[in-house]
Write a structure and sequence with these properties.
Elements (H helix, E strand, L loop, with lengths): L2 H21 L10 H13 L4 H8 L3 H14 L2 E5 L7 E5 L1 H21 L5 H20 L2
Antiparallel strand pairs: 1-2
Helix pairs in contact: 2-4, 2-5, 3-4
Length: 143
């Protein structure tokens, strides 16, 4: 990789993390933070899951996944359901309140991002989404 492109990518990623957090913080929308949003999203898309599966999917250690899932349960966004196969284990399921919270939060974030990209042609927005997806995949899978 060219040193100039590497330097540009490194700096732009640092700015991206700072700027996207400040622009899409949704302080007035619901009771979700980024970690709660990602955990709820995982449960809503993939279905009920235990803390190990949630941790694996979101690259979290089990104690962090457990703490975050317990916080969702405390807010009423998820419930623990016993595993019928293993009485010692349980799964988290999203509640109706959790589904409503994630929907509102997601709509708010998408509206914020839409305002930022409203002057971009659709082809560029699509390309950005594809490149971010590709980059996130590499972050999740490549060591």
């Amino acid at each position: 990789m060219n040193d100039d492109s590497l330097a540009t990518i490194e700096l732009e990623l640092a700015f991206l993390v700072r700027l996207i957090t400040s622009r899409t913080s949704n302080k007035g929308v619901g009771n979700l933070d980024r970690s709660a949003y990602l955990l709820l999203h995982q449960i809503s898309v993939e279905g009920s899951a235990g803390v190990k599966a949630l941790g694996d999917a979101l690259l979290l250690d089990i104690s962090t996944a457990s703490r975050q899932a317990a916080a969702l349960e405390q807010k009423g966004y998820a419930v623990k359901v016993p595993d019928e196969q293993d009485g010692r284990a349980y799964f988290y399921q999203i509640t109706e309140l959790g589904a409503q919270a994630i929907s509102e939060y997601k709509q708010s974030r998408q509206a914020s991002i839409s305002r930022l990209l409203d002057e971009w042609p659709e082809e560029e927005r699509q390309l950005l989404g594809e490149m971010l997806h590709k980059f996130n995949h590499v972050l999740r899978t490549k060591k």
